[in-house]
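request received
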Amino acid sequence: MQDLFAPPPPPPDLAHIEQLRRALHEHAHRYYVLDEPSIADVEYDRLFQELQAIEAQHPELVTPDSPTQRVGGRPLDQFVSVRHVVPMLSIRTETDTEASGAQNFDARVRRELGLNELAPVVEYVAEPKFDGLAMSLRYEHGVLVQAATRGDGEMGEDVTQNIRTIGQIPLRLPAGVPEILEVRGEVYMRRDDFETLNEQQRERGQKTFVNTRNAAAGAVRQLDPGIAAQRPLSFFAYGLGAVTPAAAGGPEFGTHYDMLQALKSWGFPVSALVGIAQGATELIAYYNSIGVQRDRLGFDIDGVVYKVNSLALQRRMGFVAREPRWAVAHKFPAQEQQTQVLGIDVQVGRTGKLTPVARLKSVFVGGVNVTNATLHNLFELRRKRVRVGDTVIVRRAGDVIPEVVAVVAPTLGTDASALPGPRVPYVPNFRMPRQCPICGSAVVREKTEVNHRCTGGLFCAAQRKQAILHFAQRRAVEVEGLGEKLVDQLVDGNVIRTLPDLYRLGLSSLASLDRMADKSAQNIVKALEKSKQTTLPRFLFGLGIRHVGEATAKELARHFGNLDAIMDASEEQLLQVNDIGPIVAKSLRTFFDQPHNREVVEQLRACGVTWSEGPPAPVAPTPLSGKTFVITGTLPTLSRDEAKDLIEAAGGKVAGSVSKKTTFVVAGTEAGSKLTKAQELGVAVLDEAGLKELLNGGS
Ligand code: 5U1
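response:
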C-alpha cells in the first residue's frame, strides 16, 4: 500500500544518473576487458548502489543498458527464436593436424584467387579457435538489444538476459559506432572459473560439468538468469554480422585485422593472440606457436582459425553453402576421445593412496597415445558408474593426468569390438581390494577421507619407488637422471630397497642394468655424489612425510634450526611453528616415532648426505611473514623458483592459486587467469620491482 504520508522522492537528477552510468560502464570495461581496474572494488560498489537506489525510486528511468541491468530478470519458460538477419556462418574444418593443414588452405586460396607461383604471398589473419559457443550481439544506437545463439545459422535463440550478466560484454558502446551493429564472437568459460564451478557443484552434491564448453553452454541456455549470473563466463569478439552499411554512415574496413582493432576500440575483448601471417610458412609457425602455448592459456581452444585478411579478397572468394571459402579452422589434436575400458587396475602412490585407474584401448588424445586414465577414487568411479567394457570419454588437457570423464555407452562384456548396448549383469562392479595389490598389506580408509590407503609404508615396493622418486626430485635433494624407468628397474630388480641404498649403488651395479650405457651410469653416480650436499628444508621435504610440503619443511628448518630438534619435538612444540596445525604436527610425530624412519635418516647421514644446520631463526617476524603470494607470468629477471625462494626466505608463503587469502599476486608478462582472478578479488598485484621493494623492507 502506498504510504500517503511519506515525502515524495526528490526529482531525479538526470545528468547525475547519466554520469553514474558512464562511470560504471567505463570502470567495468577497464576491469573486465582491459584487466586494468581504475578504482577499488568498494568504490565501484558504492557507485553501483547509488545508481540502484536512484533507479529504485524512479523505475521509469531504468534503461536496458543501465549497468544495474546485468543481473536479475525473471526465469523464462523457454527461449524465443530469433532470425539472424545476416546468417551466422560456420567454418570449414581442416582436421589434418600436421603443417599440411595450413598448406592445403593456402594452396586452395591461391587457386581460387588465380594466383600462380610467381604471385606474392597472401596475407592472413590467424586467431585461436575458442572452445565455447558462438554468439551474435545486436546493438542498436549503441545499446545491446539482443544476444542470440547460432542455432542452425538462420534461426537462433534469444539469450539476452543471460548474456547481459557477462561483465566483458558491453551493454552500451561509445558514441560514433554504427547505428546497427551485430558483433559475433565466442562465449566461453575460463579454466580456473570452470574448476571453481565444478568444485562448488561437488560441494553441493550437484552434477559436475564435463568440460568448459559444456559448462558455458549450460550457463547460456539457463532459463533462470539468476543462476546464469553465478556462472562465470567470458567473451571474445571475432567478426561482424549486420552493420549499418557504409553508404548509410557505417564503417568501411580494408582488412579483417582493422575490423578487429575497431571492435577492440569499441570495448569488446579481442584476443591478444590474434596475428597477421604472410603465406603458408607463417601460418604453420602460428599453428605451432599457439600449439605450444595451448596448455598454458587460461582457456580451452581446439585449434586456430586462418582468414584471408583483405575484405575485398574475402568478397571475391565468397561462400560454399554456409561456409566462407576465405577461412578455415585448423584443428589441434582433440583433448577428448571415446574409447573402451579394458580393465580397472589400482595404483599405489607415495603415501599409500590407492587410485583406481582405467586400462584403456589405446586412443590418441591431446597429442599422445593414452592407455590409462585416472578414476580418482572409489566414490568418483561409482558416481560415474564406470565398469569394464564401457565406452567412455577420456580427456587429456594440459599437463593434467588423463581422466575418465563419463560413460557414453555401457557395453556388452569386455570385447573391444562390441557395439554399445545394454549393460550386462555379469560385469561385476569394481571393488577396492582389501589387500594392497603390490605388497599385500591391509588397505584402510578413514571415515573422513575419500581415499583408500595401503598400510605397508616403505615395505610396499610401490611406495618405495615413489618415495625414491620424491627424494630425488629437483626440489628435494635432486639426483639428476634418476627417473621412473630407472627406479622401476632398481626396485624391481632388488638392487635397492631403501633410500640409503641409493648411495651404496656402485658403477658396476648401475652399468649392469638393461639399456644402461657406461656414460649414463657414470652420470648417475656423479649426480648422486652431488646430491649429498643439500639443505635441511630440501632433505626434510625429500623424506616424504605426509602433509610436509616444501613450505612446511622450510618453516620447520627455520624454527628448529637442526634435524634432531625436529625429530625430537613434541606435538605441542611442533604446533608453535608458523602455519603448522594439529594434522601436520601429528603426521611428523608419527613419522619420527617409527624406528625405521629414524634409521633411514641415520643411514643417509652415514652415507655422507649432509645439510647445513644453524641456530633456530630469531623470533622477530621476517618482512613477509604472514603474507601469501601467488606468482604468475614471466618475471623480467627472476625465475619463478628464484622468486619463490626469495619470498620464502623472507618469511612469506607461495601458493599455487589465487584466493581471498592471497596477499599479493606477483605478475610478469603473459600473466593469465590468475591476474584476472586477483583483480576480481581485489588482491594487490605487484611486478618484480614491487616484489623486490617489499623484500627490502618496503610495505
Ligand atoms: N577465432 C574465430 N573463431 N571463429 C569461429 N574466428 C572465427 N570465425 C568464425 C567461426 C565460426 O566464422 C567466420 C569465419 C564466419
